[in-house]
Amino acid sequence: MSIITAPPKYLPSDQAVPLSSGSRISFSHRLPAASVHKTSAAEVLLTDAVRTGDGRFTVGAAWLRDHFLHHSGDGRSPDPLLLAETVRQTLIHLSHRFHGVPQGHPFVLDRLDLELPDGAAPLRPGAPAHVTLDVTCTRTVNTPRRTGLALEAAASVDGVPLGRAGIRWEVLDPAFYQVVRHREARPRTAAGAPRRPEAPLGPLRRLAPGEVGYPGDEHVLLARDSSDAPGTFWLDPDPGHPVLFDHPSDHVAGMVLLEAFRQAGRALGAALHPAGLSASFTAFAEPDLPVAVTVTPGPDGAARTGGPGRMRTAEVTAAQRGVVLATARLAYPTDRQEAP
User: Fold this and answer.
1) Do residues 94 and 50 touch, judged by C-beta distance below 8 A?
2) Cα–Cα dist 332/335, whole Å
3) Which residue stretches does the UniProt record annotate as biased composition, category Low complexity (predicted)?
4) Best exposed site among 20, 51, 174, 286 by fewest CB in 10 Å?
5) Closest C-alpha to 293, from 279, 303, 305, 306
6) Distance in angstroms (rounded) separating the CA atoms of residues 212 and 44
7) Are 127 and 158 in contact (CB under 8 A)?
8) Do the beta carbons of residue 274 and residue 280 sit within 8 Å?
9) Alpha helices in 1-144 (DSSP H)
10) 106: Cβ–Cβ under 8 A, 6 or more apart, which residues?
């Protein structure tokens, strides 16, 4: 969730916006930063959006880097978190422009699911990728204080399928958000579930970049206490990171948690890029309190899309003071290997 109060004038509903005469979209200019809740224009991925039918849209995005956090130039398979950030920006822009959501209304992420199957469109090293999203966006809740929306997107590059994503979120009246945001947090773990650590017992050591798949320390989000059980880490981000902390927030952003989940999976020995991800967000993370990130091997999943073999999975949880903040299942093809 983020709050940006810049007031571009949006039309009150998608019915007020005329249908596009075609699905051709432009990749020549980024959309205004405020329209996707960004401060820096360099962090805007979207270039265009047109309504093509009732609840249907075509959205353009230009990926000038091949990784969510940086540009490696290695031409590897697409980064699923770069797709996640593209879809996140899409839901914000469509909510404002086509669903009449005023600027300044908080967005609360509920769930994110995405998949990049084998054979997904490769990225050309050193060249921007023009990504097209075919989007369905519908309202699921509509009350005076709360609007729920759901988005499904199929992504492609130059006509070659890239992957798919689904995301659910709520937009809250600002006064109602303050009530929801500051109400007493209640533990969300099931009876009999293992107790999760609430604070490190000793000094933290940030993980080495190679442990989480990066060449440099600036992108590392996890640290460990020498007394922690295997698979237990602590969130330790750099608050000056230009991608993860582009704008102020009163809580730890969902994309920070997703990147921490990805790094936890890598630290467990998985590939840097999962082929699938399903995440649920259940509570706000306070930025000034410790967040524990735990990862365990999950059950083998279903047969993967586009190739032989099955998926291996990792189960990841973020918790704070015993309250579960978010959970995710990351899926990896059993034969995928990536060097740090």
Assistant:
1) no
2) 8
3) 188-209
4) 174
5) 279
6) 25
7) no
8) no
9) 80-99
10) 1, 2, 3, 171, 172, 174, 177, 181
Domains of the chain: 14-176 (3.10.129.10), 187-333 (3.10.129.10)
Q: How distant, in Å, are the alpha carbons of 92, 107, 236, 339 from that of 173? A: 15, 10, 31, 46
Q: What is the pLDDT of residues 112-166, one digit of tens each?
A: 999 988 666 667 777 788 999 999 999 998 888 998 999 999 999 988 899 999 9
The crossing angle, in degrees rounded to 10, of helices 80-99 and 254-267 is: 170
Is 10 within 8 Å of 96 (Cβ atoms)?
A: yes
Using CA atoms, how far apart are residues 290 and 298, in angstroms rounded to an integer?
25
**Exposed, middle or buried by CB within 10 Å (0-12, 13-18, 19+), for 98?**
buried
**CB count, 10 Å around CB of 21?**
8
Distant-in-sequence, close-in-space partners of 45: CB < 8 Å, separation ≥ 6 = 30, 36, 61, 62, 63, 82, 85, 86, 89
**Cα angle 336-84-223, degrees, rounded to a multiple of 5:** 70
CB 204 within 8 A of CB 234: yes
Instruction: For residue 169, give Cα distances in angstroms to 108, 131, 231, 276, 317.
Output: 6, 23, 29, 20, 20
Neighbours of 287 (CB within 10 A): 17
**Residues 286-298: tens digit of each pLDDT:** 998 999 999 999 8
Q: How many residues does the chain have?
A: 340
Q: Which two tokens stand for residue 112?
A: 């994110």
CA dihedral 241, 243, 245, 247 (to 10 degrees): 140
Average pLDDT, the chain: 84
Q: What is the DSSP letter of 85?
A: H
pTM of the model: 0.85
